[in-house]
Amino acid sequence: MVHKSYIDGFLPPGKEEKNCVNCGICLQKCPVMKMGKEESRAEIERLLNGEAPKRVLDECTFCFHCNRYCPQGLKPYALIMERMTAKNRQSGKGIPKAAEYMFTGKHESGYFFDLYKAAPDEDKTILARWSQVPAPSRDTLFVGCFGRTIPQGIEHSKALQPLAKFAPRDACCGEIPYRFGDYSTFSQTVERTRAQLESLRTERLICYCGSCSNYLGNIWPNFHGVKLPFQVVSLWEWLWERLQAGELAIQRRMEKPVVINDSCYGSELGENFYTAVRGLHQAAGMTVVELPNNRFDSLCCGFASGIRNNYDNSQVTVEARKRVAQIVESRVADVSCYCPGCYASIGNFAQEHNLKLHYAINRILWACGDDPPRARTS
Predict the structure, then answer these.
(1) What pLDDT is recorded for position 230?
(2) Residues in contact with 178: Cβ distance below 8 Å, sequence separation at least 6, in sequence order
(3) Helix 360-367 and helix 235-244, axial crossing angle in degrees, nearest 10
(4) Buried b vs exposed e over 38-77: b needs ≥16 C-beta within 10 Å?
(5) Three-class secondary structure of residue 23 per DSSP
(6) Which backbone phi and psi does 334 adopt, to 5 degrees?
(7) How do the domains of the chain map onto residue ranges?
(8) Strands, DSSP E only, in 197-339?
(9) pTM score, two decimals?
(10) Where does residue 341 rank: exposed (0-12), middle (13-18), buried (19+ CB within 10 A)?
(11) What residues are paired with 139 via a beta bridge?
């Protein structure tokens, strides 16, 4: 059963609270706060004691990077989330309805549910088929909330043809309620989705969305005690594996420079994930241009910062502009986003700065011979 709160994730299996030596390295290496040694130690002490920190809850962008820097293998992100949600609860304001509308399965009406209901008949037929447990296979593609809005592109993909598909309408990794401080909904989502996924007879679950890869394969087991009975692999790594094995070929090339907009969760998925993302872009002819903050040190697009200051949505814009400024300074207008949240946040500034924003997996599948997915008009 999933743990009861964020704080449970601070101490992974085998760790104890005394393992935190209050070194402050997580905050010293934070790409946003960059605290000095003494200040960072004082802030960690306050967080551990449940006291109000002076900077963390006003500046943290909840990007996960602190987890990588902890020399003891603890998860400072979970500690900070526990204190942030506690602070917001004290205000009595509650999670905004606009954010709750994005949660899959909390109510019968929600952002993704309403999109599925308004979908063309062919989309609904595909979604109904994906809700059924497929025949046993070595690899099964899990299509999460966002991917289910473009089912025709995925269903008819030549590159993805070898994969069985599974995507119950209410199955979700739980990222959005988790990021916005609704641990109860996250827990319910995990239990519901785990029961659905455990019906699969597969060796590997290939996640269409990188967020799903992070939550199903990392956050669930390593933070909150829920481990699936098969390996979880991102679609990026699966495609890169097939390309290197000669089972997949690049059929169209794009000879152009491109900025890779790294997502928060990339640092949790690790070096193999970053290698796959860049390798596939380069194999498709693109020259990858790195931002000053990239890979394990990337800046957040701002999406997760919406939890700050009692859900002050202006915080999203504040952080997004920092990332956009680095993109503009690169003088490369072509931007690849592999995260739906980043794609939406950075997209708010695309026209203002003449950026050509792409959802990265679509262009890689196009390079592998697929037609672009049909855009939803409703």
Answers:
(1) 97
(2) 186, 215, 219
(3) 20
(4) eebbbbbebbeeeeebebbbebbbbbbbbbebbebebbbb
(5) coil
(6) -85, 115
(7) 6-91, 97-244, 257-367
(8) 202-207, 231-234, 257-261, 287-289, 334-337
(9) 0.94
(10) buried
(11) 204
Mean pLDDT, each 10-residue run in order, the chain (378 residues): 82 75 94 95 95 96 94 94 94 87 89 94 97 97 96 96 97 96 94 97 97 96 92 98 97 96 95 98 98 95 92 91 96 96 93 95 95 58
Taking CA atoms, 146 is separated from 167, 207, 232, 305, in Å, by 11, 12, 18, 20
- Assess contact for 284 and 367: CB atoms under 8 A: yes
Helices (H), 94-234: 97-100, 111-117, 121-130, 151-155, 175-179, 183-197, 210-214, 224
Structure tokens given for 74: 């603890």
Q: Which two tokens stand for residue 155?
A: 């269903």
